[in-house]
Design goal:
Layout (H helix, E strand, L loop, with lengths): L15 H12 L3 H7 L4 H9 L18 H14 L1 H22 L5 H8 L4 E3 L1 H4 L6 E5 L2 E11 L7 E8 L7 E8 L5 E4 L13 E11 L3 E6 L5 H32 L6 H10 L14
Parallel strand pairs: 1-4
Antiparallel strand pairs: 2-3, 3-7, 4-5, 5-8, 6-7
Helix pairs in contact: 1-4, 4-5, 4-8, 5-8
Length: 293
C-alpha cells in the first residue's frame, strides 16, 4: 500500500476534517481487501502518525494538535466514512488520550504520556475486558507485580505500542483490588493471539492480548482500587470514550448511506422511496418568521 502523508508543516491553521478526509481517501482502496483477509492495516496507522492525527488531541503546548473533544469526534466520523475498521480501532487510541487530556485539565500531570503519543505511540485499550472487576491475576514481587491475563477484544493491538489495561490482585492485604497499568507491547511475556474473525470490522485487529508472567513495575501502576466498588475513574473514561467511539460508528453509517442511496435511485415503488427518504439527511428545522414591531 502506498500512501502520501498530508503536509503537517503549517501549524497555524489546520483543517483537521480535510486532513482526515485525505487520509481516509488514501486508505479506502484497500478497505475491502482488508475486510476479506482480516488483516489490520499497519500502513493506516503509519499514516495516522505522519498526518498528525494520532496526536491531534494532545494539547498544543505538549506538541500535539490541540483539537477539542468535539473536533476529534468529527475526525473519527470522517475516517469512519472511508475505513470503518481503522476508524473504530483508532477510536480506542483517541479515547485513552482524551482521558489523559481530562486529567491534565484537572491538574494531574499527563506530560509523560503526551510525549509518548507525540513521538508516535499508539495506545490500546482493554476496557471491554476489564470493566469494574477486571480479570487476570497479579502477584506482588519486589519492585512491582508479576501479572497473568488474557485481554479480548483489544482493537488495534497489532499496531499498538502501549497496552492500557488492568489486572485483578486478589491477594491484596485489604481485599481484592484492581491494578490499572500501562504495559509496553515490547515487554517480555506480551503476545497476541489472532482470535478476531467476525462479520464486519474484521480488519480492526481486535485480537486477544496475552500477558504471560509479565513484570509490571510499581511506576507503571497508575491506580490500585477495590475490585468490587464502582470506581470514579470509569465516569471519566466513559465520558471520554463513548462520544468518540460512537462518532466512528456514525461515520460508518454515513458511508453506508452514501453507498446505498445511489443504488435505489432508479428504482420505483413505495417501499424503496420510503427507505431512500429514511436514509436521506434530515432537513434543517424551519426558521420562524418574526414580524417586526
Amino acid at each position: 500500500m502506498t500512501t502520501t502523508a498530508p503536509d503537517i508543516t503549517d501549524t497555524t491553521t489546520v483543517d483537521w476534517i480535510a486532513r482526515a478526509r485525505r487520509v481516509g481517501e488514501a486508505l479506502r482502496p484497500e478497505v475491502a481487501a482488508g475486510d476479506r483477509s482480516g488483516e489490520i492495516s499497519l500502513a493506516a496507522f503509519d499514516l495516522l502518525r505522519e498526518s498528525g492525527l494520532s496526536a491531534a488531541l494532545v494539547p498544543a503546548d505538549f506538541g500535539g494538535g490541540g483539537v477539542t473533544h468535539r473536533e476529534m469526534g468529527a475526525i473519527l466520523r470522517e475516517l469512519g466514512r472511508h475505513d470503518p475498521s481503522t476508524a473504530v480501532a483508532f477510536a480506542m487510541h483517541t479515547h485513552l488520550v482524551a482521558a489523559q487530556v481530562w486529567r491534565h485539565n484537572h491538574g494531574i500531570d499527563a506530560a509523560p504520556l503526551f510525549a509518548k503519543v507525540v513521538a508516535g505511540a499508539i495506545l490500546v485499550s482493554t476496557g471491554a475486558s476489564d470493566w469494574v472487576g477486571s480479570n487476570g491475576h497479579a502477584e506482588r514481587v519486589e519492585g512491582g507485580y508479576r501479572v497473568h491475563a488474557r485481554k479480548a477484544p483489544a482493537s488495534g493491538c497489532e499496531a499498538g505500542t502501549v497496552l492500557v489495561t488492568s489486572v485483578r490482585w486478589d491477594d491484596a492485604p485489604d481485599g481484592p483490588q484492581v491494578l490499572h497499568c500501562a504495559i509496553p507491547f515490547a515487554a517480555d511475556g506480551v503476545r497476541i493471539e489472532k482470535t478476531w474473525d467476525t462479520m464486519g470490522l474484521r480488519a480492526s485487529g481486535s485480537h486477544t492480548v496475552v500477558l504471560d508472567d509479565v513484570f509490571v513495575p510499581d511506576a507503571a501502576v497508575s491506580l490500585a482500587r477495590p475490585a468490587t466498588v464502582w470506581p470514579p475513574l470509569l465516569n471519566v473514561v466513559l465520558g471520554a470514550a463513548m462520544p468518540l467511539v460512537m462518532a466512528a460508528y456514525l461515520g460508518i453509517a454515513d458511508g453506508a448511506v452514501g453507498h446505498a442511496t445511489p443504488l435505489g435511485a432508479g428504482r420505483r415503488g413505495a417501499p424503496t422511496r420510503q427507505q431512500r427518504g429514511q436514509l436521506a439527511p434530515a432537513p434543517p428545522p424551519p426558521k420562524h418568521h418574526v414580524e417586526p414591531k
